[in-house]
Every structure is written in C-alpha cells, then in structure tokens.
Amino acid sequence: MILSGREIVREMGSGIVIDPFDERRVNPNSYNLSLHGELLVYRDEVLNMKTPNATEALHIPPEGLTLTPGRLYLGRTAEYTRTEKYIPMLEGRSSTGRLGLCIHVTAGFGDIGFAGYWTLEIFCIQPVRIYAGVEICQIYYHTIAGEYDLYKSGKYQNNRGIQPSLMYREFQQDRG
C-alpha cells in the first residue's frame, strides 16, 4: 500500500524524516521535494563503469539555467530524507514531465533505511530553463510485508551532496 499524504504527515518524526518539511508540499499520496542549487555533469562523452568518471559542478543562478538535450545532469534534492519502516520511492512531477523534463530517469526505488539527499538523474527532451528551489519531484512511501533488513550500504548512505555513479566500486570488491 502507498501512504496517503495525511499518513505521511502523521509519520513525520517517527517513521519518516523530511528535513526541511513544509506541510504545503503534501499531496494526496506524496510529498514534493525541491531542487538544490547545484548540478553535476560528466566531463567525458564516454563513461566507464569500471572507473570513477570526472564531473564538473554547475551552479544554478537566480535567473535559472538552461538544460540542453542529450546531456545527463545530476542534481539533488534540497531535502534530507530518512525512513526505517517504509519503502521510499521517487518520481518526477507531472508538471515537469509536461515540459519534457525527465527527473530521476532510473533508480526511483529506495531502500528501507536509506538516509540522505536524493541524487536526481535529469534529462530533457528539448531545452528547458530550471531554477533552484523549484518543486521538481515527489517522494511517496510503500508499506512492506514480512521481515526485512535496513539499508546499510556505504555506497550512497548518508550522502551530503550529489553522488555520481559509484558502480566502479562493485568491480573492486572481491566477488569470490
């Protein structure tokens, strides 16, 4: 089951943490998260799964920043989230989708126990101007049945900034 907006509010501070939290951003079954003022882009045209890929930071000025098609932008939410009893899920908002802006292209499925800022995979269909602080995506929560373990991976847990892919670490682990 998906939690209603009212249930999200009831669970604030006990089963769910969203910081900062603004009750005006609560939807019938989700909560709108906003875009932080910095983006990352990869420097190289060809990315390699087995090695760290160099990135460059872009700051979103007050007048906005125009994104160009064919480029992946990594952003992050301005809000820190944590849950230890629900499955967090992230999706773009329909208003951003109707501008041809794809938010969190893949990997919207979170793990119980994830704590941190959400890195957003942003891609646009046509040029679009974005702004820091805009409500860009929505988080919603599923209940879970059965026993479960909390997410404890060190790869993305407790992040403070935008996280480029750390897949290369999987190649460094002993798979014996």
Automatic annotation (TrEMBL):
Its EC number is 3.5.4.30. It is an enzyme of class 3 (hydrolase). The keyword Hydrolase applies. Pfam families: DCD. Keywords: Hydrolase, Nucleotide metabolism, Nucleotide-binding. InterPro entries: dCTP_deaminase, dUTPase-like_sf, dUTPase_trimeric. Bifunctional enzyme that catalyzes both the deamination of dCTP to dUTP and the hydrolysis of dUTP to dUMP without releasing the toxic dUTP intermediate. This is dCTP deaminase, dUMP-forming. The gene is dcd.
